[in-house]
Amino acid sequence: xxxxxxxxxxxxxxxxxRFSFLVCYNYHMFKSLQNMHYKSLLLxxxxxxxxxxxxxxxxxxxxxxxxxxxLIEITAMAVAVIMFRIYLKHKxxxxxxxxxxxMSTLVIFTFIINNEFHISIxxxxxxxxxxxxxxxxxxxxxxLLLYFFALSMVFIYGYMRxxxxxxxxxxxxxxxxxxxxxxxxxxxxxxxxxxxxxxRELEEANRQKTFLLKEVHHRVKNNLNIIASILGLQKFxxxxxxxxxxxxxxxxxxESIAMAHEILYxxxxxxxxxFKEYVKRLSSxxxxxxxxxxxxxxxxxxxxxxxxIEKMVQFGLMLNELMTNSLKYAFPKNRGCISIxxxxxxxxxxxxxxxxxxxxDLDTFQKGFGFSLIEMASKxxxxxxxxxxxxxxxxxxxxxGLKG
Length: 404
Prior knowledge:
Layout: H1 2-32, H2 38-63, H3 67-90, H4 93-114, H5 119-122, H6 137-161, H7 171-234, H8 241-266, E1 272-274, H9 275-289, E2 296-302, E3 306-308, H10 309-329, E4 336-345, E5 348-355, H11 362-366, H12 369-380, E6 383-388, E7 393-400
Parallel strand pairs: 2-4
Antiparallel strand pairs: 1-3, 4-5, 5-7, 6-7
């Protein structure tokens, strides 16, 4: 009695449980893998839910000593794992969806026959048709014909094997099954006519938008470099060392902004810039601009973080002022070390900058334009600036909500 009740509960819950688990699994996959193509995302959900549900069903069948079903489920789970690993290697969505459909179909056919066409499990025959949403139209027609042929063979076997079966010979039950089958097929047709067409239009629009954004960043970078070049030419109009230094400082400021646009133009992600890559390239560029400073070492220790171009420009301006100040005043022997760091603590980030050179007169430094830029940039980043100038120069900026 206990075994029969457990089997009935498992069979009655099999179809809604599989569908609900599939929906929930795909939702969480979407939240964590938002950049994944929708077909890959669905396949992750199909295979993941199929493997997990077969594992759960195997445990239940072992518990109720239904070893024949447990053996089928273990075999299906092992095959699904192997097929999923092959998909991860080759990334062929259509082949993987075909394999999923026929793998699940054969397993369900085996369950149907093994359970003597029990009415509670017969509707699971509709589950493999979910994979049709990943097929091309030609493949849908081909595999739908093959599926109906195989399904007809199964039902013919049932009619020959069982006389007066409560499901096979019951007109309302068969009508409900046919209606459900037509509903699944109508959904697949609607998907291919409407949803996939809309997705392709959105994909093309996104491709055009990406191209235009890349072009904008490229033009902005070129325009800033042109302005920097014009400033460089103006150096020759004056023999004043102070004027030359002022022009060089402004050139570096422009080039630090241009570099952010250049990185965005070169990468696929047009929303954010990798912080470490930007800091490495900018610090190397500043050192090269100061040709007599080649013996200065730069140590960079930062966490993995991507920032918007607005925030990265503020970091660029701030880092440019800090490094040029260190290179001008901290190392009279042209030797030393500059340290740049960014770490995460609790709900905030802490940015570090320091050099091991000679200390400076902080009162004099705070009156300069460079310090005003540093202070302004830290405020734009919602940061709290702390300075230590007793042994070299140390900056510490606590940044709240840097990711936001």
